[in-house]
Amino acid sequence: MEHSIMIDYNIICIGQRESTIFCPKFQTVNKLYPEFPSLEYIRGVKYRYTFDYDEQIDLTEDSYTYFYCKRETERAFIKNSAHYYLQKSPINKIMVLFRLQLDQKERIAGEITLKQFIKRLDGGKLRPNYAYLITE
Q: Is residue 1 situated within a structural domain?
């Protein structure tokens, strides 16, 4: 897959003590990346889903400022899993990070609601390599 794009969808279920399985396919538990050291200090269970999007995402702008997930099945998976883990968090907060394999430093965006997150996801306005704190 010469032109494939690997992007990891990471969730930290803040305050969660034991892992739960939303979808075992592609799931890794309690593994994040050394490029995001401050996320390691957030207490909760960390989940990572890795997808080979091939040409299923559109990286808008040359600097990869935003991305848009073209297939509805992947968008539905992201929406449903975010809602699922938000309900599993004892404080109803999760951290979401779409890690694109680029040489970028960690960035943490401000707190947004799940509704705002979904609107950004649908509109192609989420930034790769930014961690989003999501609440109900």
A: no
